[in-house]
Write a structure and sequence with these properties.
Helices cover about 50% and strands about 10% of the residues. It is α/β, with parallel strands linked by helices. Strands 5-4-1-6-7 form a 5-stranded parallel sheet, sandwiched between helices. A two-stranded antiparallel ribbon has the order 2-3. Helix 5 links the parallel strand 6 and strand 7. The protein is elongated and about 80 Å long. InterPro entries: Cell_Envelope_Assoc (IPR051599), DUF218 (IPR003848), Rossmann-like_a/b/a_fold (IPR014729).
Length: about 230
């Protein structure tokens, strides 16, 4: 008795199997890609929310020192961004938050003054006693500045700091300071170009979100001329 099955039927069925396998792999690859993109978006969005949340914190808990992160200066005159930070530091000093103010920041090629020195001179003119101001004249970006401050504070037996910078810069500076071994919290400026407009606020949050993610991934700074021209 002859079989009712054709000898050519089996190969035809087998020929469909590789295409089905490729299709199944493609579906899983697409799912993995979509999942990775969604996880990335959640991570970015979550970091942006944390940048915004910490920017709103004003912690006036007493500390060993008030640390002012540097910004641009012009022949010893602080830029508007830097002046806003120094003004906030002066207010904190007058309120008795800390007995010492630390200014930090080096200088660009061709500058006569460092950011730290110009900041110290501004505070002296504002009435802060010179012997209550420490100028740490090194640091070309946030990470190097924080590390220089941590070393200077450690050498003087100080371990806690309230950090003064722009609101959106707060979370990254606090993260770096704590990584450097300091007990640190933030009381950012509420004046100056960083907070003038919605556009500047959005730009600051977006920039700091990327910079913080980069630091957490690599432990390198990502300032990209953060203070240049400010």
């Amino acid at each position: 008795m002859k079989s009712g099955f054709s000898r050519t039927a089996a190969p035809a069925a087998n020929s469909r199997h590789p295409r089905g396998l490729v299709s199944s792999i493609s579906v899983w690859m697409a799912r993995l890609i979509v999942g990775a993109v969604l996880m990335g978006l959640i991570l970015v969005a979550g970091t942006a929310v944390r940048v915004w949340q910490v920017a709103r914190i004003d912690n006036y808990t007493p500390a060993d020192a008030i640390v002012v992160l540097g910004a641009a200066q012009y022949s010893g005159t602080p830029s508007s961004v830097f002046e806003a930070r120094l003004y906030q530091a002066g207010r904190l000093y007058e309120a008795g938050v800390a007995p010492m103010v630390i200014t930090v920041g080096g200088k660009q090629e061709g500058d006569l003054y460092t950011e730290a020195a110009s900041g110290k001179r501004y505070l002296e003119n504002a009435g802060v006693p010179s012997d209550h101001i420490l100028a740490v004249e090194t640091g070309s970006d946030t990470l190097r500045s924080i590390e220089a401050v941590a070393d200077a504070m450690g050498a003087r037996g100080m371990s806690s700091a309230v950090l003064v910078s722009d609101p959106w810069h707060s979370l990254r500076t606090r993260t770096m300071a704590r990584d450097a071994g300091l007990r640190a919290w933030t009381a950012p400026t509420r004046t100056g170009p960083a907070v003038y407009t919605r556009e500047s606020q959005f730009h600051g949050i977006a920039r700091e979100t990327g910079a913080l993610l980069w630091y957490q991934l690599t432990h390198f700074s990502a300032d990209f001329s953060y203070t240049a021209g400010q």
